[in-house]
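$ ./design --mode recover --in tokens.txt
reading tokens...
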């Protein structure tokens, strides 16, 4: 990532330049930093975390130490996502393997 020297905001790539998303300052790309940028278009589906209602959890890791409030089943697929600040623990999203109920757990 490249940050604006004037205001500290994150710069966005625009052609051969980096543009500040807050104050509009333009600067050349830091070639070392630019080489490490990853856009969402280049990500594969296995890098994405499905948390929305229609998400497919099947094939994700399984937790067998949980309790579904809807049916009482003890196994669920889960995925983990950092929903708060970096110094806070991540959130686990679950889907019951029996009834499909979804819930989240904050650690």
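writing sequence...
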């Amino acid at each position: 990532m490249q940050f604006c020297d004037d205001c500290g905001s994150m710069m966005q790539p625009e052609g051969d330049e980096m543009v500040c998303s807050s104050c509009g300052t333009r600067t050349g790309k830091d070639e070392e930093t630019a080489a490490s940028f990853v856009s969402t278009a280049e990500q594969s589906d296995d890098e994405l975390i499905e948390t929305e209602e229609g998400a497919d959890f099947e094939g994700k890791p399984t937790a067998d130490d949980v309790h579904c409030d809807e049916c009482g089943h003890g196994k669920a697929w889960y995925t983990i996502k950092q929903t708060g600040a970096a110094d806070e623990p991540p959130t686990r999203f679950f889907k019951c393997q029996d009834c499909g109920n979804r819930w989240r757990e904050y650690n």
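exit 0
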